[in-house]
């Protein structure tokens, strides 16, 4: 049985869907959001530079030391009995560093299984693997977030109540920005191995527009399956992104991380055809998610 989304939830699902397909968390929605996302990305990039020693510690299998170092960088502040927005933001951002090693293992393993399933024309197994992958990544991010705020002596009840309180106070878009940026940032844990030209990038974007518009059977079936209730609807933009990545790999032999690297180059957006393709991709995704929500 389906469920009804609130107006705010519909807006968030549509915006997150657009941001997910672009891989840069809604960078192209409007100027104000573009600036906020750029600032958020810069914060995460700065955090990455400060985390190099922490990541090296994780590689040396000393996870407890890594967690302790991350904890020391977070200043826990309250407004009354609720956590401040800055504190919640720091927890969400820095929990990425606890995820990276496992994220790489999950992604590379599932990626191989998905492509084997497609090679065997096993559509049912492929769809199961797409769903499994995105659930695993979401669960990983959730588990590390909980581990981090628990280590700071913050209960799950206090954390969740603080988030809901702030959203009721008008912080919905700010939380969307953080979540969308995190979804893109975690993907950067896998290094890019290929360099694409601008022309190749435009070919790939044009292909993505065609896929979203025409909705091949794997994509259409996955959307139909996940549209049944509110909880699985939240996975639709993630599943769409995963399927798009697989189609692009089959046609162009490029991975998601290669595309991310190219799309982070601001010089590419001076090209008029590139701008047109980005607008087309935004519109195609908006129509797709709008019809679902």
TrEMBL record:
Species, as recorded: Paramecium sonneborni
Name this protein carries in UniProt: Transmembrane protein
Domain of life of the native organism: Eukaryota
UniProt KW keywords: Membrane, Transmembrane, Transmembrane helix
Membrane-spanning intervals of the chain: 12-29
């Amino acid at each position: 049985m389906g469920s009804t989304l609130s107006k705010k939830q519909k807006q968030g699902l549509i915006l997150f869907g657009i941001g997910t397909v672009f891989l840069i968390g809604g960078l192209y929605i409007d100027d104000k959001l573009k600036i906020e996302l750029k600032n958020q990305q810069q914060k995460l990039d700065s955090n990455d530079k400060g985390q190099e020693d922490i990541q090296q510690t994780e590689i040396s299998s000393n996870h407890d030391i890594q967690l302790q170092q991350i904890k020391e960088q977070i200043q826990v502040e309250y407004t009354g009995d609720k956590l401040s927005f800055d504190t919640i933001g720091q927890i969400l951002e820095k929990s990425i560093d606890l995820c990276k090693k496992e994220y790489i293992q999950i992604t590379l393993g599932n990626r191989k299984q998905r492509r084997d399933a497609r090679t065997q024309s096993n559509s049912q197994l492929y769809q199961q693997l797409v769903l499994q992958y995105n659930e695993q990544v979401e669960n990983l991010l959730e588990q590390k977030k909980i581990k981090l705020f628990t280590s700071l002596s913050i209960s799950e009840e206090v954390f969740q109540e603080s988030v809901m309180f702030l959203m009721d106070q008008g912080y919905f878009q700010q939380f969307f920005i953080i979540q969308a940026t995190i979804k893109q940032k975690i993907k950067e844990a896998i290094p890019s191995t290929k360099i694409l030209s601008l022309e190749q990038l435009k070919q790939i974007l044009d292909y993505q527009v065609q896929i979203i518009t025409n909705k091949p059977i794997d994509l259409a079936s996955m959307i139909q399956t996940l549209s049944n209730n509110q909880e699985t609807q939240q996975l639709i933009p993630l599943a769409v992104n995963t399927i798009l990545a697989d189609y692009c790999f089959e046609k162009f032999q490029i991975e998601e991380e290669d595309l991310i690297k190219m799309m982070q180059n601001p010089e590419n957006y001076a090209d008029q055809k590139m701008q047109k393709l980005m607008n087309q991709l935004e519109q195609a995704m908006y129509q797709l998610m709008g019809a679902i929500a």
